[in-house]
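Reminder: ligand-aware prediction takes two inputs, not one.
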Amino acid sequence: MSDDVIVADGLRKEFVVRVRAGRLRREKRRVTAVDGIDLRVPRGEMLGYIGPNGAGKSTTLKMLTGVLTPSAGEVRVCGLRPVAQRTRLALRVGVVFGQRSQLWWDLPLRESFALLRHVYRVPAAAHAARLRRCRSLLDLDSFLDTPVRQLSLGQRMRGELTAALLHGPEVLFLDEPTIGLDVVSKQAVRGFLGELGRAGDTTLVLTTHDLADIERLCRRLVVVDHGRVVHDGSIAALHERYGSRRVLVADLEAPLPEPPVLAGAPLHRVEADGRRLAFALESASVAEVVSALAALGTLRDVSIVEPDIEDVVARLYRGS
Ligand SMILES: Nc1ncnc2c1ncn2[C@@H]1O[C@H](COP(=O)(O)OP(=O)(O)OP(=O)(O)O)[C@@H](O)[C@H]1O
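Here is what comes back for the chain with adenosine-5'-triphosphate:
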């Protein structure tokens, strides 16, 4: 039996919207939000699901969690049909959607957690152990007794993550978990998710516009645009596909009389009045470039810049 916890075949979602067509007339128009997505996610994988605004990410997550009925296609999560078996599915997945909260607005966080234990019928010992772990990893203690409505966005998000995990879900769906968070909360959330990933028993599907989240957490990246998958693979594979190169930046004591031509490392940028040269590392190695430069002038410093994921993803969005 396959151990894919998420299986989607030909998943589609169309919305019918009414748009103005003249002063009084309104016309029906079909919007295809998800246009035939195939996806298989093995147990324990951390998957980044990204795409530009309106690409269909949230709609996909809503179909995977049983909030929306697909217009066509097949979907199974933990072997269940999300819409038809939504209650059973809720016991096996955790969901954090930026705009919606699982917490009780007027209650202290601690009491929301206690209520959730009853909602999900979690044995007391298991609940206590999970809560203890979240309290320490997400640093909850200083605001555990604060009513949710008084929490900062970052504190609330840490509370939401805990709420989504207290029943021990196999799959966690996160829609923009770090959006709008300050640096400290962002680090806390990323650190926590990284820890979850290393433990290896929770499958994670993460949508985000912050590519640093993906770089830190996800080995696999699915990029969607106009409701279709335009890339499915590692970040390294994406760089490979778009020919991203590492760049060697060399600081020289004095500018060279003319721009050097190095085999396998085209000159990429010239800065600081010619004292700083950047070369794209195509087929040449770092050692080859350094020794070629050392023969031409006096080197003060050399650094290597890794390819930028923002850059390559922007190219991918433009291309698709
Ligand atoms: N309930 C709805 N009714 C009509 N159209 C909708 C509805 N929900 C989404 N859409 C449309 O479907 C498309 C995909 O929307 P979706 O929210 O899934 O995109 P997204 O990738 O999550 O975008 P973002 O990054 O902006 O959150 C958009 O064109 C959107 O306007």
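The longest helix spans residues 183-199. The mean pLDDT is 91. We will return to this case in the review session.
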